[in-house]
Prior knowledge:
Layout: E1 2-14, H1 54-66, E2 74-75, E3 78-81, E4 91-94, E5 101-109, E6 119-131, E7 135-140, E8 147-152, E9 159-165, H2 172-189, E10 201-212, E11 227-232, H3 235-254, E12 262-267, E13 272-278, E14 288-289, E15 296-297, H4 299-306, H5 313-324, H6 328-336, H7 340-357, H8 366-393, H9 405-416, H10 422-435, H11 439-445, H12 454-466, H13 469-476, H14 483-493, H15 500-514
Parallel strand pairs: 11-12
Antiparallel strand pairs: 1-9, 1-10, 2-15, 3-4, 3-14, 5-6, 6-9, 7-8, 10-11, 12-13
Helix pairs in contact: 1-4, 2-3, 5-6, 7-8, 7-9, 8-9, 8-10, 9-10, 12-14, 12-15, 14-15
Amino acid sequence: MRLLPIIGLEIHVQLKTVSKxxxxxxxxxxxxxxxxxxxPICTGQPGALPALNAMAIxxxxxxxxxxxxxxxxxxxxxxxxxxxxxxxxxxxxSQFQFPLAVDGKIEFDIVGEKPPRDHITVGITRAHLEEDxxxxxxxxxxxxNTQATYVDYNRAGTPxxxxxxxxxxxxxxxxKTYLQEIRAILRAIGASDADMEKGQMRCDANVSxxxxxxxxxxxxxxxxxxxxxxxxxxxxxxxRAIAYEIKRHTKLYESNIIPVESTxxxxxxxxxxxxxxxxxxxxxxxxxxEPDLPPQNLIQIHECxxxxxxxxxxxxxxxxxNEYWFSPSDAAFFVANGWTSYVEDVMSExxxxxxATNPTGKSGGELLDxxxxxxxxxxGGWMTSKLTNILTxxxxxxxxxxxxxxxxxxxxxxxxxxxxxxxxxxxxxxxxVDTGDDPSHLMEIHNLxxxxxxxxxxxxxxxxxxxxxxxxxxxxxxxLGVLKWxxxxxxxxxxxxxxxxxxxxxxxxxxxxxx
Length: 515
């Protein structure tokens, strides 16, 4: 019997608002000292009444529209009742029967993978607003290693948007890519920074296995019991935790044991899940309408937010591929990391140079397209690896970069024209990142270019041939591949200042003249 993974994700996103969901406390979870951004409302003091943050509603609707959701005319808040130390009121203000949005979808491809499905569509069941809980901090309190738990209420009341998917995912890789696509959308529309390391986006994964035939058709009508893995806080954890649960479930079924529905945690160090409690149902939370908040009319908000939607990540990727000739993997990297605008400016500069110097005089000619493809491959390679590594070493992002797009375009042109070799280009790029100066000027003052005078280069070629009789004899005996050895020797002797094309021509000519 073949078992097919059935996976759905519940994603909790902290919205990028100035204040909290139901009070005027600053939304400064990561920057403030513990318990310094709190008030009677977000700490659940008796008699304190919530006041709804309009910006949270706007960002929630905007995100839902980006997820192709249906926005109802009105939305209602509810009380979700449960006890936990980080929930000061004893209930969470959330949404149950009348959420902010329903029936959306996301479509994406998995770049660099070979999954069983090429193009994936994941349904969005619902998206609803709620307040975040406080943060428990567990620590050893004394020499006896007894555990103490402290609660930081700065996070209590932070606006959350919960995005619930349909169980349409079929592998850990699909789940990871879906989560990355959600993050890219959130960043593109400015709803959240969605940094999982900072807790701005967290994920619960629901996993079950379904018996199917060879064509992946279900052998039963109902899904098997599912396991929910809570509070996954990195893409790696999501992928690993789901893979672990698939293996665990498979072993249980192979032993004729049916998994019990439960909620589990994830131990990143051990690489395994652990049981926390039996799975709750909606009845356990005793939902009822929040009496202190009126229903929200969403009609006008819907129209306003629809008009503010920017170009979404899927369209950005398509444009980078179709208009600028980038590979799918490079395009995905640029969009996911917020590089789209910078990359477009670089390619526009290079395209302008091509149009001005195109020997065919025809825009869109084969020669022009071939050069655009070459520039895209060269630019993509230098940006996604070399430039990214430099930024990472300096704890910088693309928004911190001093290097202007037109100067990076000139840098790529210098490499393409053979005016600098790759080793010296790497040195030049470091100077460019650190100073933001002009590439040609930096190349000149640091003597990095392949600009050795031809007469001087010719003499170096002669000297190396004279001082390398064994290799010279091999060339004269017909082993022309050894010519490359001489080119390498000249490049080494000149510390990269010789142009390799010119060098190879001089080496060949010197041997022709001596025969």
